[in-house]
Write a structure and sequence with these properties.
The structure holds 3 protein chains of 3 kinds.
Chain A (H helix, E strand, L loop, with lengths): L5 E14 L6 E15 L4 E5 L6 H8 L7 E6 L2 E2 L5 H8 L2 E4 L13 H12 L7 H11 L16 H13 L5 E5 L7 H18 L2 E6 L2 H7 L2 E6 L2 E7 H6 L4 H9 L5 H6 L30 H5 L5 E4 L2 E3 L10
Parallel strand pairs in A: 3-8, 3-9, 6-7, 7-8
Antiparallel strand pairs in A: 1-2, 1-4, 4-5, 9-10, 10-12, 11-12
Helix pairs in contact in A: 3-4, 3-5, 4-5, 5-6
Chain B lengths: L1 H28 L4 H5 L6 H11 L5 H14 L1 E3 L6 E3 L6 E2 L4 E2 H36 L4 H15 L2 H14 L19 H35 L2 H9 L3 H29 L3 H6 L5 H10 L4 H29 L7
Antiparallel strand pairs in B: 1-2, 3-4
Chain C lengths: L4 E12 L2 E13 L4 E5 L6 H9 L8 E10 L2 E4 L5 H5 L6 E4 L13 H10 L6 H14 L5 H4 L9 H13 L5 E5 L7 H18 L2 E6 L2 H7 L2 E6 L2 E7 H6 L4 H9 L44 H4 L5 E4 L2 E3 L5 H7 L4
Parallel strand pairs in C: 3-8, 3-9, 6-7, 7-8
Antiparallel strand pairs in C: 1-2, 1-4, 4-5, 9-10, 10-12, 11-12
Helix pairs in contact in C: 3-4, 3-6, 4-6, 6-7
Classes of the chains: A alpha/beta, B mainly alpha, C alpha/beta.
């Protein structure tokens, strides 16, 4: 088997927070990411899903070392990059890029598209073959933008086009890994498919690996090879896409999947739905034991005291649960 | 809540101590010698040294500071022999120029400044906030434009010009004020009308400058709040525009004004130098400016500086406490 | 017997410096009590603008509104478009209510939940603040907020997003409205909370026998709750019909395109999505002819360049199913992929 492009072991990222209002002073720690393992192979897409506050975005940023990890190791292309300084990281950054959620906020409004994409070459001090402008225009064309618009500013583009600019910038240095953080959730439905298709085409063309962070399970299901489900900073389930969607073994995954609406009235009406009670607990003060126990319909005393380990229950399928759902046929 | 108060108050005390130390240090390093200023043209070094001793400036600055702090709590005796004066606690110092305890000077000047500040405060708050609300409600229509003219005039006209104009062309010209009585202190408890007569023009002068800022601030806050989702919710409930403005928009739009107003008011309590000067009001501002310009009266300068700083720090604390009552999000759950 | 709400030829436009924004154009539909009408469309399709017009929440000075929206109340019909503003205000929160997308910002941060609910109740009922709080507590219990008698005294920031949306629903329903407009009520919520809120809306609709207009961009949500659907594009209704008809036999290339372009959690083949090319048009200076023409892959099949010259009207294709398209039934079958 080939070597993974990204291997993350026991990753933790804790943020200090002050709790309470004016009349009290408290210091706490948000365990945004609390022990996450990931492996991404070349050309593979890992979908990272979960609800708000589950830590999926933090994982995405920490593996790129945009945040310093609290614990754990990050190996990129076989090299341990956990403790590299920003300066040491710089040459490696061309290999790992990011696409952001908000195409309105992530592009400097005072720079032209040409500058925005060209910056990536300047930072790495690379002069592309055939000239910079030509390369920028080639990239623009590749992502479906009109190369003649090289001197336009971000506000002259629609949301979908801006996300294409973000994609062009990300692929400019021919990276091996792209972390895509909710890349389509700010876009209109009819535009989402355009960007998803673009990402898939580029993956095929450049043998890219994606860490695809999103809350929309339909999109994740479509684009991913493997899916990792997170809840309150921990991995609940990690499995091959088909395995996970057809045969979810963790109660949370099962509930999450059943909550996703399907654009088909007959299926929608007939489907059995597991409606979870209550809300997500605060990540500042997560429940003891299994973090999901407060909303789990199967929770027992053991779940409230003992943290379940993430274990393999069948080849390529890991879950962290004391009482897994039975495997279906 | 109690814990918070204790913490904030002790922090405030620390800040005040630090301020008083810095004030002492600043005046110590300034290239001014109060002792040298005390004697006239023909001055022998011996006289200067004697005066220095009399002023208490012949000891290191930390000792001066220690004596000053002690005086605050137990009172203090200044000078010696025949020229010995005792001021009871709290003693801020003794002015040898005026031959009076600084505390007594402050006691006389403070009511003047307080009167000036309170009247001006309510006047500008009322004018500024109401104009701001009107301007916001009639955004881009004539009331808004008219209030904008007021804002421009108020912000661009310095007090020393508006004050003189008001004094010369309104107060004196129409005989509202007798020039001989200008700035004469009248207690509001003995003669309320006389008090108002003394202060009405200074109030207008001060309020003009401040009200403009408040108009602009209120206008933009009300407009901003009006586009909040919860105002749309209030409208969707079926509330009338009047109730929406009064209960929903203003509550949120005016909350930040508490902070602004508190600090502005505290700033004025330290003395409004220009306005007091123009209208001949014997307040803290005039006391300190004279102490600086005329005779470099260090005890007065230190005392007024300290007082102004104290007002600001204490008001800051009050504003924070008040804000927690206005905005439940600041309160602890 | 006419439906509770009947909207006819409703047109909303805003004059701006750049020109007239045709936010919604020639909208006609009706919705009766006990029925859920979903309005689907992308941003700028005019779906929210229409409902704000029905609620009378547009500034009449800066908005041009034409057409009619008649509420058939027990006391007689009222056209909320032409009725005096004060009369429409007295219908808001009583005959018709609305909930919004972002429950985080839709509640006043300085007033307690009880204050805000009882304010809505006391507007139309005689009773003191205590009675208002009692009614508020009942409503909070009804929408499933645990420990309601304690939480009624709390402030919005002490509630989670899902709980706040429950509070919004409780407030909207406190005077038993006949019509509830829900504008993207679950878009800001997590998917597990979304299913709670959708279930709650269904339960409340039964409880109060309301007409519900659900505005959303999510075709999955629509499939779950809608009886009938309006599909909107560039300010117009392009297709209108019962939910099953819209999903299984769509009669407009835009609807067909939307259904093809969304990935489905229940389809694991990983087929490439069929995206709709291009962008929605600007609502200022809409192109002549069909607004969807430039993104439509079938426009060239229509004879005489009709799509570029004549805007199609909303015609009945079959029983109670309307579509705004020049394509013939045979061409549509082909567009649907033979269905």
């Amino acid at each position: 088997m080939t070597q993974p492009i990204l291997k993350v072991t026991g990753l933790k990222k804790h943020f200090p927070v002050s709790t309470g209002g004016v009349f009290s002073k408290g210091k706490g720690v948000v365990k945004a990411v609390d022990g996450v393992d990931l492996e991404i192979f070349p050309g593979q897409t890992i979908g990272l899903v979960g609800e708000s506050g589950c830590g999926k975005t933090t994982v995405g940023r920490t593996v790129l070392k945009l945040y310093e990890p609290t614990a754990g190791t990050i190996e990129f292309n076989g090299e341990d990059i956990t403790n590299l300084t920003p300066k040491q990281m710089k040459p490696r950054r061309s290999q790992m890029q990011m696409i952001f959620q908000d195409p309105f906020a992530s592009l400097n409004p005072r720079q032209t598209v040409g500058t925005l994409i060209g910056n990536t070459f300047d930072i790495q001090k690379i002069t592309p073959q055939g000239g910079k402008v030509e390369e920028i225009q080639r990239l623009m064309k590749r992502v479906g933008l009109n190369p003649e618009h090289i001197n336009r500013y971000p506000h002259e583009f629609s949301g979908g086009q801006r996300q294409r600019i973000g994609v062009a910038r990300a692929i400019a240095l021919k990276p091996k890994l792209i972390v895509a953080d909710e890349p389509v959730s700010a876009l209109d439905v009819s535009i989402q498919a355009q960007v998803v298709n673009l990402l898939e085409d580029l993956q095929e063309e450049f043998n890219l690996s994606y860490l695809f962070v999103a809350h929309d399970l339909s999109v994740v299901q479509h684009i991913s090879d493997r899916v990792v489900v997170m809840y309150l900073g921990k991995v609940m389930e990690d499995a091959d896409k088909k395995d996970l969607f057809l045969n979810p073994r963790h109660p949370y995954t099962k509930a999450l999947l059943s909550a996703v609406p399907v654009p088909d009235p007959k299926i929608g009406r007939a489907r059995e739905r597991i409606i979870l009670q209550g809300d997500l607990p605060s990540p500042v003060n997560p429940p003891a034991g299994c973090v999901f126990n407060t909303r789990c319909w199967k929770a027992q005393d053991k779940c409230r005291t003992e943290v379940p380990e993430l274990v393999q229950i069948q080849p390529g399928h890991k879950i962290a649960c004391h009482f897994p759902e039975p495997a279906s046929a | 809540m109690l814990k918070y108060l204790v913490r904030r108050i002790s922090a405030t005390l620390v800040v005040l101590t630090l301020i008083s130390m810095s004030v002492f240090l600043i005046f110590d390093v300034l290239p001014m010698d109060p002792a040298r200023l005390t004697c006239g043209k023909a001055c022998s070094p011996a006289v200067v040294e004697a005066n220095r001793h009399r002023l208490g400036l012949d000891v290191p600055v930390q000792v001066q500071y220690g004596r000053w702090v002690k005086g605050l709590f137990v009172g203090r005796t200044y000078g010696e022999g025949q020229a010995e004066f005792t001021c009871p606690a709290p003693a801020f110092g003794y002015s040898f120029n005026r031959h009076e305890c600084v505390t007594d000077l402050l006691k006389r000047a403070f009511p003047v400044t307080l009167s000036l500040a309170i009247g001006a405060f309510f006047l500008w708050l009322f004018v500024g906030v109401s104009l701001g609300i009107v301007a916001a409600r009639f955004k881009n229509r004539w009331p808004d434009r008219a209030s904008n003219v007021f804002v421009l005039v108020g912000t661009s006209l310095p007090t020393f010009i508006s004050g003189i104009l008001i004094l010369l062309f309104v107060a004196l010209k129409f005989g509202f004020v007798n020039p001989i009585d200008l700035g004469k202190w009248v207690s509001p408890f003995e003669n309320p009308l006389g008090w108002i007569n003394t202060f009405i023009f200074p109030w207008i002068t001060l309020a003009l400058a401040y009200a403009a800022t408040y108009t602009r601030f209120t206008r933009s806050n009300v407009i901003e709040t009006s586009s909040e989702d919860y105002i749309r919710t209030a409208r969707a409930k079926g509330l009338s525009e009047k109730v929406i403005l009064r209960k929903h928009t203003l509550r949120a739009a005016l909350a930040p004004i508490v902070t602004l107003a508190g600090l502005d008011f505290a700033g004025l309590l330290g003395g409004a130098i220009i306005t007091e000067g123009i209208f001949n009001l014997p307040g803290l501002g005039r006391l300190s400016i004279r102490a600086v310009l005329n005779d470099y009266d260090l005890p007065i300068i230190v005392a007024t500086t300290m007082l102004a700083a104290t007002f600001l720090v204490v008001m800051n604390l009050l504003v924070d406490i008040l804000y927690a009552y206005i905005d439940p999000r600041v309160r602890v759950a | 017997m006419s439906a509770f709400l009947e909207v006819k030829n409703l047109t909303v436009s805003f004059p701006t410096e750049d020109g007239l924004v045709q936010a919604s154009n020639d909208i006609s539909f009706s919705v009766d009590r006990g029925e859920t009408l979903a309005v689907v469309g992308e941003s700028g399709s005019g779906k929210s603008v229409t409902s704000l017009a029905i609620m009378g929440l547009h500034n009449r000075q800066t908005t041009n509104i034409n057409g009619s929206a008649v509420l058939n109340l027990e006391s007689g019909p009222i056209d909320v478009i032409s009725a005096p503003e004060e009369q429409v205000r007295r219908l808001r929160g009583k005959a018709m209510s609305m909930i919004f997308q972002d429950p985080m910002s839709a509640l006043h941060p300085y007033y307690s939940i009880g204050d805000q609910l009882s304010e809505a109740w006391r507007l139309y009922n005689k009773g003191d603040k205590k009675a208002g709080f009692k009614r508020a507590t009942e409503m909070l219990e009804l929408v499933g907020i645990p420990d309601a008698s304690k939480r009624v005294k709390e402030f919005p920031h002490q509630f989670s997003g899902g709980m706040r949306q429950r509070v919004m629903i409780a407030m909207a329903l406190i005077n038993n409205p006949a019509l509830l407009i829900a504008d993207e009520p679950t878009t800001a919520l997590d998917v597990t909370v979304q299913s709670q809120i959708l279930q709650l809306l269904k339960d409340m609709q039964k409880e109060f026998n309301m007409a519900v207009i659900l505005i959303t961009h999510d075709l999955g949500v629509v499939a779950e709750v809608a009886d009938r659907v309006n599909v909107m594009y560039a300010g117009k209704i392009v297709e209108q019909g019962v939910a099953d008809g819209i999903y299984y036999k769509p009669d407009h290339p835009y609807t067909i395109g939307l259904l093809n372009s969304i990935p489905r959690v229940d389809q694991l083949e990983g087929k490439r999505l069929i995206a709709i090319p291009g962008q929605p048009p600007s609502l200022i200076n809409l192109p002549q002819g069909c607004s969807f023409r430039k993104r439509c892959t079938f426009a060239d099949q229509v004879a005489d360049n009709l799509c570029a010259t004549i805007a199609p009207s909303l015609d009945m294709k079959e029983n109670a199913h309307f579509s705004r398209c020049h394509l013939t039934e045979k061409q549509l079958v082909a567009a649907r992929g033979g269905k």
